[in-house]
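Side project, low priority. Logging it here so it doesn't get lost.
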Amino acid sequence: MKITEAKVILSCPGRNFVTLKIMTDEGIYGLGDATLNGMEKAVVAYLENYCIPALIGKDPCRIEDIWHYFYRGVYWLRGSVSLTAISAIDMALWDIKGKSLNTPLYNLLGGKSRDRILVYCHANGKDAEETIDKVGEKISKGFRAVRVQSGVPGIEDAYGVPKDDRPYEPAAKGLAHEETWDTTKYLNFLPLLFRKVRDVYGENVHLLHDAHHRCTPVEGARLAKELEPFHLFWLEDPVTGELQESLRLIRHHSTTPIAIGEVYNTIFDHTTLITEQLIDYIRMPLVHGGGITHMLKVAAMASVYHINTGFHGATDLSPVNLAAALHFNTAINNFGIQEYMPHQDIVHEVFSINYRYDDGFMFVDDSPGIGVDIDEKKAAEYPYEMASLPVNRKTDGTIFYW
């Protein structure tokens, strides 16, 4: 079998998605997600100008070799754009292999370790009262794990909180808009919020929260320590992910479980975190973390240190990635939880899916390969629309982490 053609499909059914389609001389094709929110065209250019020409004529079954060709064979290693492109190639090759062997992806990864995938949802409110109501709505829909995000008194913009009744989507049309942030007000408010949530709903629901990189190490340690009585499933991204050693201070002062890695790209972003057991969950998704081939290595290394997966799974990743993640989660032993934000109905006009949600869990069927397909004609009806993630400033005007 040889790769004869590959194309990039850029479409915007409600939001932008980048899909790589790799074709072979046996008529089998595979799909990979190449979506990088706000930087979609950078990945498209890298795939079309550099990767696809080098793919033609290669044996798609040589997945490990092809992975290293595009990672180790390129002098300028790592980076979100290049690793997203590699992820898409890798995903598509695993899809081809599953289809050629007429078996679902999870069977190629060792078979089932579980029959259903625990997921968490998002409960977002403009203030504490609305947030508490939203948590109740999610629990009523069967969710056993809920990420709690709320507007903060005195802060106009809060991460995770929509300004209208539509689902939260941080990327806005056009160039980046600016938001304002006050860490002190946030730190004073959040423990009060979680006390109220626990008072209302008790201990039988898993609660999660995303600090979104906005604390210094000592602020993150304070937050994690003050949230201890509320037994969070995890506190996500309490500090920026650039300096792994930052997590040492938080770990020293608190037993609140920590999740990090949504913006990571390789195993080298995790080495200190894993070997020093500074985190409990790895958030790096397949689509940005080198695909299935690379994430198998990351998960295996993490398993030695009692660290589980908790993949990023927001709607800025396509159904191709979500299905691949569900297969991956089905197979590995050290799965922890999967983020789940349902795509808008319009997305399913373009992508046909093979997974479903039921009573707090996701299920993926036994379709060969990844099991998701794309309608290219329908995708063409939704052309790309530039959208950018926000830029964040402190109240004094200093640029800060968004």
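Brief comment: The first helix runs from residue 40 to 55.
Revisit when time allows.
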